Amino acid sequence: MKELSELEKKINVVFRDKNLLQQAVVHDSYINENPGFKPGHNERLEFLGDAVLELVVREFLYNKFPNPEGDLTKYKEQLVKNDRLPIISNKLNLEDYLLMGKGEYNNKAGRQKLLADTLEALIGAIYLDQGYKKVRDFITNNILNDCKNVLK
After folding, report:
1. What is the pLDDT of residue 1?
2. Which one of 46, 50, 104, 117 is the catalytic residue?
3. Full pLDDT tens readout for the chain, 152 residues
4. What count of other Cβ atoms lies within 10 Å of the Cβ of residue 85?
5. Would you give the DSSP letter of residue 89?
6. What pLDDT shows up at residue 21?
7. What is the C-alpha to C-alpha distance for residues 41 and 99, in angstroms, rounded to an integer?
8. Is the torsion defined by CA of 133, 10, 121, 23 positive or negative?
9. Catalytic residue among 104, 117, 120, 129
10. Number of folded domains in the chain?
11. Is 120 one of the catalytic residues?
């Protein structure tokens, strides 16, 4: 596993609370094999990050396009669909920082969902540590930056 300081450089976010960053990259399967590991796994951060991602993307679409609600909903789905988030996770090399149990490590079929979940957990951690503006910048730079190529 690479040092989390490398990930901070890559995402251009220096965490005040390093435990939030650590937690964002810990899958619950790792905790099952390492009981008592602190700060714990990333499921709660994923829950929050999913909502933050949704808000930022909806705000972006609302401000960028005068289209009706139905069109904006389709655009949102294209930007954050489950097969796209793992691609972004791979660009950030999140798997290099991820702590997971042996079973998950060997489960290549489920890896894409795990990477999408980790990206959402990272978004949640950035939001808690840095606030809305910084997480909006992160999402804009990493997810919304190529919206012209994604939206059909």
Report:
1. 60
2. 50
3. 679 999 999 999 999 999 999 999 999 999 999 988 999 999 999 999 999 999 999 999 999 999 999 999 999 999 998 789 999 999 999 999 999 988 787 777 778 899 999 999 999 999 999 999 999 999 999 999 988 888 87
4. 22
5. H
6. 97
7. 9
8. negative
9. 120
10. 1
11. yes
Q: Are the CB atoms for 19 and 37 separated by under 8 Å?
A: no
Which two three-digit tokens encode residue 54? 């949704």
The answer to whether the beta carbons of residues 54 and 79 sit under 8 Å apart is no
Tracing tokens 């808690």 back to the chain, one arrives at 128
Q: By CB neighbour count within 10 A (0-12 exposed, 13-18 middle, 19+ buried), where does 103 fall?
A: exposed
Q: Is residue 150 a contact partner of residue 88, using CB atoms and an 8 Å limit? A: no
Find the CATH number of the domain harbouring 136: 1.10.1520.10
Domain of residue 89 covers 4-150
60 membership: H or E segment, kind and range? helix 43-64
